[in-house]
Write a structure and sequence with these properties.
This protein is mostly helical and 466 residues long. It is built from five helices and three strands, in the order H-H-H-H-H-E-E-E. It has a three-stranded antiparallel β-sheet with strand order 1-2-3.
């Protein structure tokens, strides 16, 4: 510092000398000017006054220059001292700040080491809790899986037993129903056979009676023949009515059996379709869950990235609820654990939504199936009614054709046969005009009609009365 002061003083002296030289040059100039002025002044008084003014001016100028030089010298000295003091203060502050920085750095290093140790201790504790929780969860999952397998086996055995019982009951009921149907059918057949046998016996009896009456008396043949024809017609009508009743009963039974089979087939199709949709719901939920987990890890396309963004947004919204529930249960939970729990819950919510969507599709599909089956049943019913109408039309047409055929046959019989009276046996007989064949029996082609007899009455008169 002393050397610095000496250096500053020597420079100040040199500067002062330089200023002094400049001041002397200025004085010389002033003297030259004043000499010129003195030369020009002619009066002595003015010269003396001028000399005094000159002396005073020189003194003033010298004093001013000395003061200015001194002030500059003192200012430079004070500036040098201030600059030196400032440099020293800066060095002292630098040293002090270095000491403080080193102290603070050592303190921060100690705090960071302590914080790192605390973080490592907390992280090791977290890892230990996480490993313990994972092991506990794996043990719980293993026990739950074993329990679920046992319950599935128990449920499967109980289901098999129930199915066996249901099959046995169904077979018993079906066998009893078939047995009752066969018994009813056999009873109806026996009833019909018995009625037909009675009708046949009655017919045979009447036929025997008729034959006996014909052999006894030819005159009573027509009456007996008419009675026989009437009885035959009644018995044939009864047999026809019985056959018709049997046919109608068989048709009704076949229709009821078909309706029952259609109902069983409808129930089978519905149960099968329901089972298919249940399997589809299970597979769809599992695949959708895998799809969500894969897209959360490695999305490939833009759509997958957008889907992942939506899932992340839902997870962020769900984390607060998870933390709130953990606080309500007084359970300490880290943010990573809350994130994992929220991710699982969001995936479960999405899976439930997908399951609901697939179930709605299954309901719509079952409704469409019911509509199709109803339409098929209506179509079958309409087809059955059309078949019944067609069959009725056939029956009516056949009856009309038979009536027309009988009418034509009766007309042909009227043209072919003629009814005559036999005077010997006192009875009517029928003769074929074409072949000349005669018969006591009325031709069958005439049916219930009979030929008109020619009026062959003859008027006989006694000779005496004539």
């Amino acid at each position: 510092m002393k050397h610095a002061l000496e250096t500053i003083s020597s420079t100040a002296m040199e500067y002062a000398i330089l200023l002094w030289k400049r001041m002397i040059l200025k004085q010389k100039r002033i003297q030259s000017v004043l000499s010129m002025v003195l030369n020009r002044i002619h009066s002595q008084t003015l010269h003396i006054l001028f000399l005094e003014i000159k002396k005073n001016a020189v003194k003033c100028i010298a004093l001013i220059e000395i003061q200015r030089s001194w002030r500059g010298h003192r200012g430079r000295l004070s500036a040098a001292v201030q600059a030196n003091t400032r440099d020293c203060a800066i060095q002292i502050q630098t040293l002090h700040r270095g000491i403080q920085a080193r102290t603070l750095c050592s303190r921060m290093i100690e705090e960071r080491v302590w914080a790192a140790c605390e973080m490592q201790r907390a992280f090791r504790g977290f890892l230990g809790r996480k490993v313990a929780s994972n092991r506990l969860l794996s043990q719980i999952d293993l026990e739950y899986t074993e329990h679920a397998q046992k319950m599935e086996l128990i449920q499967l055995h109980s289901t098999i037993r129930c199915v066996v019982r249901l099959q046995r009951k169904f077979r018993e009921r079906f066998a009893m129903k078939r047995y009752n149907e066969m018994v009813d059918k056999r009873r109806r057949e026996l009833t019909v056979e018995h009625e037909m046998a009675e009708a046949q016996n009655l017919r045979n009896q009447h036929r025997d009676i008729h034959n006996k009456q014909v052999m006894q008396h030819i005159g009573r043949r027509k009456t007996e023949l008419n009675e026989h024809n009437l009885i035959s017609k009644r018995s044939s009508d009864q047999a026809h009515a019985l056959r018709r009743k049997i046919f109608d009963d068989n048709q009704t039974y076949q229709l009821e059996l078909k309706k029952k089979r259609d109902l069983e087939h409808t129930a089978y199709l519905r149960s099968k379709r329901t089972e298919e949709w249940e399997n589809k719901i299970k597979s769809g939920c599992s695949s959708y869950k895998r799809y969500c987990l894969e897209y959360l890890k490695t999305p490939a396309t833009r759509t997958e990235r957008q889907f992942r963004k939506q899932i992340k947004t839902l997870i962020k919204r769900r984390i607060n609820d998870v933390l709130k529930r953990a606080d309500d249960r007084q359970y300490e939970m880290e943010l990573d654990e809350a994130n994992v729990v929220a991710e699982k819950e969001v995936i479960e919510i999405l899976v439930r939504t997908e399951k609901k969507r697939i179930r709605n599709e299954s309901k719509q599909d079952l409704q469409r199936l019911d509509q199709e089956l109803d339409q098929e049943a209506k179509r079958v019913e309409v087809e059955y009614e059309e078949n019944q109408r067609t069959r009725a039309n056939w029956i009516i047409c056949a009856a009309a054709r038979r009536w027309l055929a009988r009418k034509e046959l009766r007309k042909a019989g009227i043209d072919t046969f003629e009814k005559l009276f036999d005077d010997t046996y006192k009875a009517f007989f029928y003769r074929n005009k074409r072949t000349g064949e005669v018969s006591w029996l009325k031709p069958k082609c005439l049916g219930s009609f009979d030929l008109e007899v020619k009026d062959e009455w003859k008027e006989w008169c006694h000779e005496e009365t004539d």
